[in-house]
Design a protein that fits this description.
Number of strands: 14
Bound molecules: nicotinamide-adenine-dinucleotide
Strand order of the largest sheet: 8-9-10-7-11-12-13-14
Radius of gyration: 21 Å
Oligomer: single chain
Helix content: 25-40%
Strand content: 15-25%
Order of helices and strands: EHEHHEHEHEHEHEHHEEEEEEEHH
Length: 350
């Protein structure tokens, strides 16, 4: 294995965020970027001084210079690319992952892993056949204050977790893709595409979910063909319970919340502030303490570091393909519960 792995990034909107962090990750370097939008590519090429592969392609490769292309198949097949980072729209995740695995590459897949449970299974099958690594980019797991909360659930600070609340609240009316792929239920369901942040945090803290019960409604975005608000009740295998809210048309600032109740203490945090509020029985059971959780969140660099280390050490990365698939399955179980008016057991075997 080379000392430094080459990263090829597909989709240069969210992917530009990946690009900005690659140089902060030990063992990774930029090898290639790809987008259909040549203007977007040109802007990034100017900012980062990246050549364009359509001219003197072989010459560029011979000099180990990162290149840009509009063809993702070219990026996936290229020998300088060891790790493909897919930051294209959700409906393209499976075909891009299959192209990467067919060329024996590792994959960092933006959340959600794929649109459906069947697509997740197909992606995992392709990864197993390739024998390479697949990680789901659930970046919220890598925010420093959320990581601190996770450590407090593991080191006993909060005691046994018996309840949690997570939310993903994001008004979608003004973001790119409005009325386009993000609003086409064939290409993206809001609860899977966006709500997966909160669903995944719930699984990360609470463990696997035994049963889901969901109510949803549709008051805010008339052109949306699915419901735009979901209240999801979870019963975890551990006996803990939880509530996940996914809301996509509300008059409310964007935020992701993580609240955890344990037998020794409770904590509430949101991704838009770097601190958490903690209440511990042994200190004062009626009072919140403001807890700085360390440096500002560096989620993207941290998640790429996890995958780089997993490739290097041949270990399973945090938030691997199976975990990403379970989060998608949990979302679909909630949607099914809301449609059918009964509790559903989410699929966990992949
Ligand atoms: N982790 C996060 O918080 C976060 C935030 C935003 C988006 N995302 C995820 O990133 C992915 C992309 O979202 P986005 O907001 O950047 O979407 P977007 O629609 O704004 O941008 C997608 C980009 O992909 C390019 N593209 C489309 N088809 C392509 C193809 N065949 N080959 C190459 N490039 C192609 C488009 O030209 C565009 O530049 C989604 O899966 C989304 O869920 C994650």
């Amino acid at each position: 294995m080379p000392d430094t792995l080459g990263v090829g990034i597909i989709g240069m909107h969210m992917g530009a965020g990946h690009l900005r962090q690659i140089s902060n990750v030990r063992g990774l370097k930029l090898a290639a970027i790809c987008d259909l939008d040549e203007d977007l590519i040109r802007g990034i090429q100017e900012e980062f001084d990246i050549p364009f592969a359509t001219t003197k392609y072989e010459e560029l490769c011979a000099h180990d210079i990162p290149f840009a292309t509009t063809k993702y198949e070219e990026l996936c097949a290229h020998e300088d690319v060891d790790l493909v980072s897919v930051a294209a729209p959700d409906y393209l995740h499976l075909e891009m992952a299959e192209a990467a695995f067919a060329s024996g590459k590792h994959v960092m897949m933006e959340k959600p892993l794929a649109r459906t449970v069947d697509e997740c299974q197909a992606m995992i099958d392709a990864q197993r056949a390739a024998g390479t690594k697949l990680m789901t980019a659930h970046v919220a797991r890598f925010y420093s204050h959320f990581q601190k909360i996770k450590s407090w659930t593991e080191d006993g600070t909060l005691g046994e977790v018996y309840n949690l609340y997570t939310s993903y609240i994001h008004n979608y009316e003004q973001i790119p893709g409005f009325n386009e792929w993000r609003f086409d239920p064939e290409r993206r369901h809001q609860l899977i595409g966006g709500g997966c942040h909160a669903l995944d945090l719930a699984r990360w803290i609470g463990g696997e979910v035994a049963e889901v019960s969901c109510y949803s409604n549709h008051f805010n975005i008339p052109v949306l063909q699915t419901d735009d608000h979901f209240n999801i009740n979870l019963k975890f295998e551990s006996g803990a319970v939880g509530i996940v809210v996914g809301s996509f048309g509300c008059a409310h600032p964007y935020n992701i919340d993580l609240h955890v109740w344990g037998t020794r203490g409770s904590v509430i945090a949101t991704n838009t502030t770097p601190t958490a509020r903690v209440c511990l029985r042994q200190i004062d059971r009626h009072k919140w303490l403001e807890m700085p959780a360390g440096a500002a969140p560096k989620g993207l660099a941290a998640e790429f570091q996890v995958l780089a280390d997993a490739i290097r050490n041949d270990t399973v990365p945090e938030s691997d393909g199976v975990s990403g698939a379970r989060t998608v399955a949990l979302g679909w179980a909630a949607i099914e519960s809301s449609r059918e008016g009964r509790p559903i057991e989410p699929k966990v075997d992949f």
